[in-house]
Amino acid sequence: MNIKQLIEKHDSENLFNVLVNTWQQAEFAWNARVDVTSIKNRAFSNAILCGLGGSAISGNFFSNFVTAELGIPFAVNRNYYLPKYAGPETLLILSSYSGNTEESVSALKEGLSRGCAIVCLSTGGQVKQLAEENNLPFVLLQAGFQPRYAFGNSFFALLKVFQELGLIGNYEDFVAGVIAQWKSAGEIYATGNNAAIELAEKLTGYIPVILSVSDVNEALGMRFKAQLNENAKLHAFSTALPEHNHNEVVAWEVWAEDQAKFATVIINDKTFHPQVAKRFSIISGLISSRGCPVLTVEGKGETLKQRLCELIYFLDWVSYYCAIVRGYDPAEIDNIHLLKKKLSE
């Protein structure tokens, strides 16, 4: 079968078109009503995004995106409760696409009790209800997607909130550029032969080990790993340098293909510290010498922020095609539904 036939056979919810039109999510979110007047004059000493899964990765991506710009500490909280330091000087972003993520709802209630300045991002559910009951700023996301396919919604809504609060600069022109780039790239990745399909085919039969860099692009590694898990039903591992070089590198001393069939994916960038770039060169040689394939991904945009947006979209396509070429439905997440059902019993 060719790739078009495989898509018709395995893509039960037409996620192909969702990916092609991801630029529309960014456009929708950026133009959504964001009214943070009630908290705009508050002083913030820290910011926390609460979320899980596809609703949380926007926070990790945002952290990499604004690491050199944001003047207050920013954390992503994936739990039922908040860290002890959260209080009246905390900007709490509650990100739950469905609005019913139980961990996030619990954290929202705790944030209310602690007097945090709260902004909610959701399509509805309990989060919207609590926001309305407590007069909290609420950004309505575009409904109709699986949460992991709603990144364009969650990230650009988050970016707009921080812009409106004056905590970062103006991103109007930048967002317009990303929308145009995603629209153009989507047309390319929808064709029969493209780089996303090529990488997916190279990864077929392997367990991906993804290497990125802390505080620069590790969110890309985290996202790609999670997308491979959910879309392609594929185990994958993500780790970041330089920490990798202080522990995990040792495991390669005894690795052999008959133990686990790995393929390493390096998410490269030209802004890495010179010593980190040198580390990647050494590690690539070390891993290759053990007989493990080493594949490199690198963005082409002029700035790091452009490359981050370029690659998160590209790697989403790779994970989609990994599902298709492996014969799996990228929409199916039965174990997650089963887990939620049992938790509610």
Give me the strand/helix succession.
HHHEHEEHEHEHHHEHEEHEHH
> Strand percentage, roughly?
5-15%
CATH class category name of the largest domain: Alpha Beta
Tally of individual helices: 13
> Please, how many domains?
2
Task: For this entry, give a set of tags.
345 residues, alpha/beta, Rossmann fold, five-stranded parallel sheet, 13 helices
Overview of this structure, please?
By secondary structure, this protein is of the alpha/beta class. The chain has two domains: 3-178, Rossmann fold; 193-326, Glucose-6-phosphate isomerase like protein, domain 1 (Rossmann fold, 3-Layer(aba) Sandwich). The protein has helices spanning 3-10, 15-20, 22-31, 57-65, 102-114, 125-133, 151-164, 172-189, 195-203, 218-232, 274-289, 304-326, 334-344, and strands spanning 46-50, 74-77, 90-95, 117-122, 138-140, 207-213, 237-241, 262-268, 294-298. The strands form two sheets. A five-stranded parallel β-sheet has the order 2-1-3-4-5, sandwiched between helices. Strands 7-6-8-9 form a four-stranded parallel β-sheet, sandwiched between helices. Helix 3 (22-31) runs parallel beside helix 7 and helix 10 packs parallel to helix 12 (304-326). The longest helix has 23 residues, at 304-326.
